[in-house]
Amino acid sequence: xxxxxxxxxxxxxxxxxxxxxxxxxxxxxxxxxxxxxxxxxxxxxxxxxxxxxxxxxxxxxxxxxxxx
Length: 68
Fold this sequence. Notes:
Mean pLDDT: 82
Oligomer: single chain
Organism: Flavimaricola marinus
Shape: rod-shaped
Largest sheet: none
Low-confidence stretches: none
Keywords: Membrane, Transmembrane, Transmembrane helix
InterPro entries: Flp_Fap
Structural class: mainly alpha
Order of helices and strands: HH
Protein name: Flp/Fap pilin component
Distance between the termini: 90 Å
Transmembrane segments: 27-46
């Protein structure tokens, strides 16, 4: 019985000290955060760019300029 407890205790201590899994999870969370920032930036800039093109198109239409 004592041998089994020692093996279990040693296994649990080894598992708790192992940080490889935690590092992988941290990298995964960091990658997800970077992806979310990129998506948010693209959405925001896309809307602003679309608004700018619409403004230019309206101004050109008002000025009487037509596409070739």
